[in-house]
Design goal:
7-stranded mixed beta sheet; globular
């Protein structure tokens, strides 16, 4: 009988695997049909795509970075102009780790050189991630979609009419109403129990109270990324090169102000290429590399603080002391809630928007799969996010071995629960970005200075108290079918479940300030480095230059809404 059951299980696994393979092959065929303008960088030739009478190709717009902003930007511009998009990563359509919600944690844990996610560790010691794929952060994030509040739109000075036309353009194509998972349902009820009201139902709007937001995952758990927005492009006017790593912007320095002429990039084989703009006065190089990549590329191109450029012998094109300054990341802390039974996997669907400067969110079920528990993620614990917070210099061989052992020794039950997350809105603490070297493939050195401002720390304390109240609420307790846990038990469990290498203060969990510092993580909403008024003007043109613009989150002084992806997508449109 046991042999029969085993054979049936093997047969079912084989069917599932064949189904995934056929699904991915179908995705490959479909994307080659829908996106004929996507090519490998090695196919580029200076005369292949010429739009002029000369042999040398030129473009009205060159967009560096085919990410959350770059894809809708390219689709929009291609309706009337010739556009070249240069993306350092590959395509998302055939990557199962990107495509399926159930593989969310595996995608983040994949640290191979060709993965969609490139990890980096800030000097604060918090492990973070950058996207390295066409579609950018929409390929590796938790999928939550919301609009910014109207005050943000006013502060940045955008045209409200265009904003209100651009959000729906995105939403019609890739955004869905989620089917609420039981964990998210219980969190919603718990938030209302503790007074995070009113209940605003399903809405994209950023309003105080408890709500269910949109998601880029459909009802089958398949992710829809910014790359799909390219389907609306004019295929005759758009070229997208993947595995094209831009090394620097090329300038003509003979005029009063340096003028962007094009870019230098390398293909997947390491061969060098140059692409140039047309002589049209409106032609531009547009940087959409994100809050890490854009200030890094500006400095590698000779635009940045003089001392920083001289330190690495980079020829200075333009001194600007503010490039790389004002970096911020919204600190997040989580309270782990163990369960005695498995729970359905869910990413952020329900959110509590409080008036004390914190957001309460939740996720569940991502640690209970066997592959997740058994596989070795190095210093990255994808089940709980990315909770390793030991600075690189302190990551000794012994510390890593202790981390791996600690993870293997965790009981299976420890992964059967979920997390209540609290995130600081508009942190006052800021840091900076510096070049580590002149290799664009390497991460720059980034400092976010988490909890550097005492008000951020106090808001974290208030948020943890709120998260604990949600867990202790009657409705959430009924969902768990367990006794109400004490605050001390919740925090001690969370510190132990928080698999990182930071020295723990398990006897000091009554100090919520210490808990916040010990367990700080990221939710990937970092921003800044190229602020409006300091690096770019209000039209996002780089100050002191011609034909160079920035369109991404590096220009933000705050992260819009509870999740910025909706606003970055809208911004590109």
């Amino acid at each position: 009988m046991a042999a029969f059951v085993g054979a049936v299980k093997l047969f079912i696994c084989l069917l599932l695997w064949l189904n995934i393979l056929s699904s991915l092959q179908g995705a490959r065929d479909l994307y080659e049909f829908r996106y004929p303008f996507i090519k490998r960088a090695s196919s580029f030739s200076s005369s292949s795509y010429s739009s002029s009478n000369t042999d040398e190709v030129s473009y009205d717009y060159i967009i560096v970075g085919g990410g959350t902003a770059g894809c809708p930007l390219a689709a929009t511009l291609s309706r009337n102009f010739s556009v070249l998009v240069l993306e350092r990563g590959g395509v998302p359509f055939t990557n199962a780790n990107v495509s399926f919600l159930s593989n969310f944690h595996i995608a983040l844990a994949d640290t191979s050189p060709s993965s969609a996610s490139q990890p980096f560790v800030s000097t604060d010691g918090v492990i973070n991630a950058r996207a390295r794929v066409l579609g950018g952060g929409t390929c590796i994030n938790a999928g939550f979609y919301t609009r910014a509040n109207s005050d943000f739109i006013k502060r940045v000075g955008w045209d409200a009419r265009l904003v209100n036309e651009s959000y729906p353009w995105v939403e019609r194509q890739i955004v869905h109403q989620p089917k609420l998972a039981p964990w998210q349902d219980a969190v919603r009820d718990g938030l209302l129990d503790v007074g995070v009201s009113p209940y605003n139902g399903f809405t994209y709007d950023h309003v105080y109270g408890t709500k269910v937001g949109g998601t880029i995952f459909d009802r089958f758990g398949r992710r829809h990324t910014a790359a799909e927005l390219l389907a609306t492009a004019n295929p005759k006017m758009l070229t997208v090169l993947v595995y094209a790593t831009v090394q620097k912007v090329l300038f003509d320095g003979t005029g009063e102000r340096p003028k962007a002429m094009g870019v230098m990039f390398k293909d997947e084989n390491g061969n060098q290429h140059q692409a140039f703009l047309t002589n049209n006065r409106r032609s531009e190089v547009i940087l959409s590399c994100g809050a890490i990549g854009t200030p890094q590329l500006l400095m590698l191109s000779g635009v940045g603080p003089k001392a920083e450029l001289e330190r690495l012998n980079i020829s200075m094109v333009l001194h600007n002391e503010f490039v790389g300054k004002g970096m911020a990341d919204n600190p997040m802390n989580s309270v782990f809630v163990p369960m005695t039974h498995p729970v359905e996997q869910s990413l952020i669907q329900t959110v509590g928007i409080t008036k004390m400067g914190v957001y309460i969110e939740a996720s569940s079920g991502f640690g209970q799969s066997q592959d997740s528990i058994r596989c070795h993620h190095g210093i990255l614990s994808a089940e709980i996010g990315q909770l390793s917070t030991l600075p690189p210099k302190q990551r000794t061989k012994e510390a890593i071995e202790a981390f791996v052992k600690g993870k293997k020794d965790l009981p299976h039950e420890a992964f059967k629960g979920g997390f209540i997350l609290e995130k600081i809105a508009m942190p006052l603490s800021t840091g900076h970005l510096n070049l580590a070297n002149t290799n664009v493939d390497d991460n720059p050195s980034v400092t976010f200075n988490y909890f550097g401002h005492p008000r951020d720390l106090q808001r974290c304390v208030n948020g943890i108290r709120m998260a604990a109240k949600v867990i202790q609420s009657d409705r959430f307790t009924n969902f768990r079918k367990c006794d109400k846990p004490t605050m001390e038990k919740l925090l001690n469990t969370s510190v132990r479940a928080n698999i990182n290498l930071i020295p723990k203060h398990t006897n000091d969990t009554k100090s919520l300030e210490q808990f916040c510092k010990d367990t700080v993580i990221t939710i990937w909403h970092y921003h800044g480095g190229c602020h409006v008024g300091k690096v770019v003007n209000h039209d996002h043109k780089v100050l002191g230059t011609r034909r160079l613009r920035i369109v991404d989150g590096s220009t933000f002084s705050e992260s819009p809404g509870t999740n910025p992806q909706g606003t970055v997508l809208m911004m590109g449109r």
